[in-house]
Amino acid sequence: MKKTAIISLAIVLVIGVFSGCSSNGQHSPTTITSEPATTEVNNDISTTAWPAITVARPWHDPEFNWEEVSINFPERYSLYGDQDEDWGFERQYRSVYYALSPDDFDSVSHEAYMEWSRSNQYGERTEPLVFQFIKYFDVIFEESERAAKKEYLWHLSWEVNMLHEGHEIFNPYLLYTFNLERINDYYSLDPKRNESARQWLEEWLRTNEPYESYSTFLTVNP
pLDDT digit string (tens) for 195-213? Predict the structure, then answer.
């Protein structure tokens, strides 16, 4: 993937842009969804669900071109209220930090996941659950990127409100920097930490590519 395309994924502040590859190898928009109505309420975001869009070929088709799909991550998310979610602890991060959809990762069998999950119960954490999963199974970047894109397209097809933290998609471009400090800042409920991490990621992607895997990262950074 072109670095310019990767950079755009991390800095655009609204969701819903699909970009395709032109003849010269650069990405150009092919389909754009309309922007949802958004209002600021008590430091939170109130918005309508994002409208569904139609792509030329369904993503379950083996000939579907994943290069055409671009995920754009919002700057802010609407958060669960304290009365809406009983976490059992005082959380510091958005809900995606504690979540994982293992079915989106084809290289990890159900049996292997279940064995791993028995020692990785949900609850208070010091790193994102999906990040720990990626490291343990040494999942390559391309597979994680596709897993995120699958979730993104599924949300679009069901008109899910992706500006709510309960439907946030994990950011593979961030996770594959393997910089845990910045990863935690990005998912923090503290808006200043989040903003700092987003700016850092934008700058990092200007001169770097996401690492291919955790083992690659360890080789380069022994």
Answer: 999 999 999 999 999 999 9
